[in-house]
Amino acid sequence: MREHFRFYRHRWFKVWIAMAALSAALIAMTEAVGNRAVMPAAFFYGAAAGPVGLLVAIHDRTGIGASVPGVTLVGMFLFGGGVALLLGGYFDALFIPDKHGPSILQVGWIEESAKALPLLLVALTGRHLTKAAGVALGLSCATGFAIMESMSYAWKNVDHAGAVNAGMVLFMRGLATPFSHLAWTGLICAVAFGAWQARGRIVITFSVAGAFVAAAVLHSLNDGLLTLDIPGPVRLLFLVVAAVSYWLFYRATRDLVPGAAAGPAAVPGLASRPYAS
């Protein structure tokens, strides 16, 4: 318990506070001298502070960063997250015309499917088919998605309320996204890649389907509570959704420990039979 109260000593907190402070400093400079050229950097650091801080905390707890080559993780962050945002944005616009209506409850099913697709394509190659690698790749994809989505919200806000209010949007989303997008996709990957590693093949089990349904439902509940016209006290239930989301992710990854996550990135024999019907 004493160590929990000393969170300020941990690397994740130092990373989070440094990135958030840099974002705030860039926004302050923009307001002071009117140099809007630095706003993309301000938005990036603000959007990335929370997700990257959580990535550091998870790696320190599990060591999963050593399970996949760094260039692969960067590729999943850039292109997996980008493809997920492309698909999610398209189908969100197609099926959710009213962002403040009941159709918002479909968003979890759409966006979790969009984030899962790049990860499934990698899994089908038979490479990196271990639980540690799957969680690392899933978190990288979710981080890319969450950062770019947060930056888009900031850009929309800056046109209406100025750079300072856009910075506040980034700060609040930086607190929320680690316990939403990262937790949801991380949960799916922990259960799916864990099952695939144990079975030696890709197969949709009840546990894999259940993890996806849980993530999609929690995602939709989160967005519904934050956007639907409901009483203020009920809206605060999004904090419960965030807590449950991270608790499920933590339970699904508590068997991952530093050292055990490192090792071969592919399971022998999987490349020749990457999936099962």
UniProtKB/TrEMBL annotation:
<keyword id="KW-1133">Transmembrane helix</keyword>
<dbReference type="InterPro" id="IPR026898">
    <property type="entry name" value="PrsW"/>
</dbReference>
<feature type="transmembrane region" description="Helical">
    <location>
        <begin position="38"/>
        <end position="58"/>
    </location>
</feature>
<protein>
    <submittedName>
        <fullName>RsiW-degrading membrane proteinase PrsW (M82 family)</fullName>
    </submittedName>
</protein>
<feature type="transmembrane region" description="Helical">
    <location>
        <begin position="202"/>
        <end position="221"/>
    </location>
</feature>
<feature type="transmembrane region" description="Helical">
    <location>
        <begin position="103"/>
        <end position="124"/>
    </location>
</feature>
<keyword id="KW-0472">Membrane</keyword>
<feature type="transmembrane region" description="Helical">
    <location>
        <begin position="12"/>
        <end position="32"/>
    </location>
</feature>
<feature type="transmembrane region" description="Helical">
    <location>
        <begin position="70"/>
        <end position="91"/>
    </location>
</feature>
<keyword id="KW-0812">Transmembrane</keyword>
<dbReference type="Pfam" id="PF13367">
    <property type="entry name" value="PrsW-protease"/>
</dbReference>
<feature type="transmembrane region" description="Helical">
    <location>
        <begin position="233"/>
        <end position="250"/>
    </location>
</feature>
<feature type="transmembrane region" description="Helical">
    <location>
        <begin position="136"/>
        <end position="155"/>
    </location>
</feature>
<feature type="transmembrane region" description="Helical">
    <location>
        <begin position="175"/>
        <end position="195"/>
    </location>
</feature>
<dbReference type="GO" id="GO:0008233">
    <property type="term" value="F:peptidase activity"/>
</dbReference>
